[in-house]
Design brief:
InterPro entries: Alpha/beta_knot_MTases, NA-bd_OB-fold, Put_MeTrfase-C9orf114-like, tRNA_m1G_MTases_N. Helix 2 crosses helix 4. 42% of the residues lie in helices and 17% in strands.
Length: 390
């Protein structure tokens, strides 16, 4: 049965509307696809950016590491060059030594313990300022006075010696070498001597003072040493733990956790590179022992005494020497030290010394304290010593 004309019209109208609806909905379908495509593209771009960023960071890290390694190499080469130039300029370093000697009784002139401590610090600083290699503290009392009841003032000698040793020791190993002691109760008032071997962790030198920690566990042996750096140093010698040593480093930087070096003599920095390396301390029981117990095999070849009764230092002409000794008196001068020494038969200290000097002619004060005399004397002798060593 054929549809009527009205039904045909309705069918055409429905088809037309359907086509229009499909046509109108098409843009929305395309928009959703576009949004999905854009989201996918954005995710792909983000992934690419992450990969690129990671790659750039890796490259930057590699570049930074290469730069650091190059900087380290350049620094080592520069330092080695500077060290070689310094050694070249200094020749064989400094071969001569300078010793000062003074009685421990000078601390008795201080009225309080804290002032005695501070006085010892003044002497230590004066010694370091003028590159003194050895300090000798001697007892200037008569032997009978030492053995008599109440003769405990000899403790001034031990106090003096302990404070001088404490000040000379590098700060990063003091705690291990100097446990708590009543002699050090006022160590906080002491000014640092700031000697070249008192280095911070950031200072660079092929020489450093250190403390032996333990023996190495490696088959090759050796010892681990704390030299005040972030890394410990392995020296090839086997040394008992707790010992203080002077170390010469093979290199200043290494990728490994441990540096390598060699234990050397305390005098090596001075003799090889001309670097002042602090002082050693010696205790003597009398004025004569200062001279006779010299630690150097050839002895002191230049011995100088100081007194206001001596010859003016302006007239002094020094010959070249290997080991010089400068002796200072106490409160009563060297004359009192001479009289207290039973081993000496001379009655005038002038005969004990090659040079008996007044290092401050026409002094304004009636007395010059020993700590003042050290500064005055070493200032006057310095140009004469330099001239003699040329």
């Amino acid at each position: 049965m054929n549809p009527s004309s009205s039904e045909k019209i309705n069918l055409k109208t429905k088809q037309k509307r359907r086509r229009e609806n499909i046509k109108q909905s098409q843009p929305y379908i395309n928009m959703r696809k576009l949004q999905e495509a854009m989201k996918q593209k954005r995710e792909e771009n983000e992934l690419k950016e992450k990969k690129l960023s990671k790659k750039m960071k890796t490259q930057e890290k590699t570049k930074k590491k290469a730069t650091e390694e190059r900087t380290i190499t350049e620094s080592e080469e520069k330092l080695n060059t500077n060290t070689k130039n310094k050694e070249k300029n200094d020749g064989k370093g400094r071969s001569y030594t300078l010793t000062i000697a003074l009685p421990g009784s000078i601390l008795d002139n201080a009225q309080a313990f804290v002032l005695r401590t501070y006085l010892a610090g003044q002497v230590a600083r004066a010694a370091v300022i003028f590159n003194v290699d050895e300090i000798v503290v001697f007892d200037e009392r008569k032997r009978s006075d030492r053995d008599a009841p109440g003769g405990s003032k000899g403790d001034s000698n031990h106090l003096f010696g302990r404070l001088l040793q404490y000040l000379e020791c590098p700060q990063y190993i003091r705690k291990q070498l100097f446990p708590k002691h009543s002699d050090l109760q006022y160590a906080g008032v002491l000014n640092p001597v700031a000697s070249p071997h008192h280095m911070s962790v950031n200072e660079e030198s092929i020489y450093r003072e250190g403390l032996v920690l333990s023996k190495s566990s490696k088959p090759s042996g050796g010892s681990l040493v704390d030299v005040g750096l972030k890394k410990k140093v392995l020296v090839d010698q086997t040394i008992p733990s707790g010992q203080r040593v002077t170390v010469k480093l093979n290199t200043l930087r290494s990728k490994k956790d441990i540096l390598k070096g060699t234990a050397v003599s305390f005098s090596t920095p001075r003799t090889e590179a001309g670097i002042y390396w602090g002082y050693t301390l010696r205790m003597a029981d009398s004025l004569s022992s200062v001279i006779t117990e010299c630690p150097y095999e050839e002895g002191y070849d230049t011995i100088i005494g100081t007194s206001d009764k001596g010859t003016s230092v302006d007239e002094l002409k020094l010959e070249k020497f290997r080991h010089a000794l400068v002796v200072f008196g106490g409160l009563q001068g060297l004359e009192a030290s001479l009289q207290a020494d039973d081993k000496l038969t001379v009655d005038n200290p002038r005969y004990l010394f090659q040079h008996y000097l007044n290092t401050c002619p026409n002094q304004g004060s009636r007395t010059i304290r020993t700590e003042e005399a050290i500064l005055i004397t070493m200032s006057a002798l310095r140009p004469k010593i330099d001239l003699a060593q040329r």
